[in-house]
Amino acid sequence: MKQRIALLLLAMTALGGPIFSQQNHTLVVKAAQPTATIQPTMWGVFFEDINLGADGGIYAEMVKNRSFEFFKPLMGWTVNRKKFVEGEMLVINRGVENTRNPRFLRVTMNNAAKGDLGLTNEGFRGMGIKKGVRYDLSLMYRQPQAQTKLHIELIDTAKQVIGDTVLSLTEAGDNWHKAAVSFHAKETVLKGKLNIWFEGNGTIDLDMISLFPGDTWKNRRGGMRADMIQLLADMKPGFIRFPGGCIVEGFDLTNRYQWKNTVGPIEERQLMINRWNIEFPHRATPDYFQTFGLGFFEYFQLADDIGAEPLPILNCGMACQFNSAEVVPMQAIDPYIQDALDLIEFANGDVSTKWGKVRAEMGHPAPFNLKMMGIGNENWGPQYIERLKAFQAAIKAKYPNIKLICSSGTDPNGERFDYLNGELRKMNADFIDEHYYRKPEWFFQNARRYDSYPRTGSKVFGGEYASHVDKTAGGNRNTWLAAISEAAFMTSLERNADVVQMASYAPLFAHIDGWQWAPDLIWVNNLQAYGTPDYYVQKLFSLNKGSKVVPISLNNDVVAGQDSLYASACIDAATNELIIKVVNASDKPQNNTLQLEGVKKLASKGKLTVMQAELTALNSFDSPTNVVPVESTITIKGKKITLNNSPYSFSVLRVKLE
């Protein structure tokens, strides 16, 4: 590891000279000469249902396979019985009678008492159970006679009961009914389970067996996991992109994400296999499905909750080109385009419209004020451009103010990128979505990437990026080396805010027992969630984005690698503060003098926030705050500020202009 870091630092010297001795620099800030406007959407978050991000993640449902719709209908469930009776539990498939939710479980009881016949659900890598928290169990049922009792138990790893109640099912007949009961847990357990014991005689049909904690985000029943959403809200993101990247495309077009299947009553949302179920053979996840309890309405609601602009991404008639490369023929593209038009109506339409009425019936009569959407994800080639033009023409004709985000493929350079970038600019695309999953060296070396981009025409959306540190795995990829390289690159994005108007790290969440892809911004288990060093870098940029870029220079040049320094500066018009961000990527301290021009007077005190650590440092469940920002107060005299930048540090200074 030390040898690899040394090689990295040697490579960085090519950007601006030696880095192994302490340097003294004067950075000139021209505070009265704004060069670009920073959009409120500059820093956002990108959500994809990968790494158990939705089911088993932010969607707080604790029961896996609640409606028996997985390929293996009883996956996640174990039958408990004293004596085996043939046919006492059958999965019934209604087929065409209910194509969206065809299966249910039929249980036949023979004067069953508690302990004779039951079910256990294992949850998503277990169930995180918290002492004192209320748990809400609900289900759908029908029975010929009203004579069934369900004994509900939460159990720990030793099968000891840590919370229980009884649910009496009192309705009889041919119709389905809903029942619910709440109870509290007596202990905290990382990997508990749910038991359901049957008491009664005859048959009962069960479906949509569900368990939620009572402490969901905003205490919504059937809602989202509060600690995970709070980490997002704390970032104050300008936008949230959803429902992801590759799951939008699907392995093939039958596996693509279709937003209309994700709205309406929960029991009518059609489950689908998650494409990450089979994507990585070395990390196969056969129990990874999408129930769509977290659907497009919930995504819009989440954006509304945290003050972020919604950014939905839709399929453009192309499946994943790495997998099947399947495309819908142009003569059959209209339904895909109609889905996009209908989504705008769902988000913004009056309650008298077809899809605006659906939104209102789900509990949100007011429009969500959708301003932008993505067409396709990481799609490429002439076939993408052909389909995109059809979308662009139809959407702009009906909704001219909706901004469209367009794919530039999978990589930030090369023949594929050059072709798409050229074609999209000819089309005057609103946004070109660039993705960069690269080594830390790439991020350091590309700090001037956008300095020479056109200042007019299409804007850039840095839609997915993360620094990938070699020879690490899982959460260990999220080292301070990764985060500081991203911070260096982000100073260049901010400096070029007239070119780059949105950016988001990816992926967002990962479950420690169910991840397929790393690195990730936030790691979780069933009870805990922590932000990585990358998370805190993203948060610092988002909370300190300002409104106008102002020049900061070293020797009359932008600060982009000279002596391993990277910097940006901006004005926050709302607070009348100057915000300066400086990355010192060297192994030595640097004493930098900030010389402020165009300033009449500064406050006598400023707020300095610093992140600093060894390059291999990271956060973990045991040490979630090992690498975090530390705030202090800095004394200011006159119009010069002395900023002592520690080795391997990222500093943010805020000072009031008086």
UniProtKB/TrEMBL annotation:
Keyword Signal annotated: yes
GO annotation (BP), single: L-arabinose metabolic process
GO MF annotation terms: alpha-L-arabinofuranosidase activity
Segment forming the signal sequence: 1-21
UniProt domain Alpha-L-arabinofuranosidase C-terminal: residue ranges: 463-649
Reaction equations catalysed: Hydrolysis of terminal non-reducing alpha-L-arabinofuranoside residues in alpha-L-arabinosides
Alphabetical UniProt keywords: Glycoprotein, Hydrolase, Signal
Pfam families documented for this protein: Alpha-L-AF_C (PF06964), ASD1_dom (PF22848)
Enzyme Commission number: 3.2.1.55
Top EC class, one word: hydrolase
Stored Gene3D superfamilies: Glycosidases, Golgi alpha-mannosidase II
Regions annotated as coiled coil: none
SUPFAM superfamilies recorded: (Trans)glycosidases, Glycosyl hydrolase domain
Keyword Glycoprotein annotated: yes
Family in the record: Belongs to the glycosyl hydrolase 51 family.
Official protein name in the record: non-reducing end alpha-L-arabinofuranosidase
Species name: Niastella caeni
Species lineage: Bacteria, Pseudomonadati, Bacteroidota, Chitinophagia, Chitinophagales
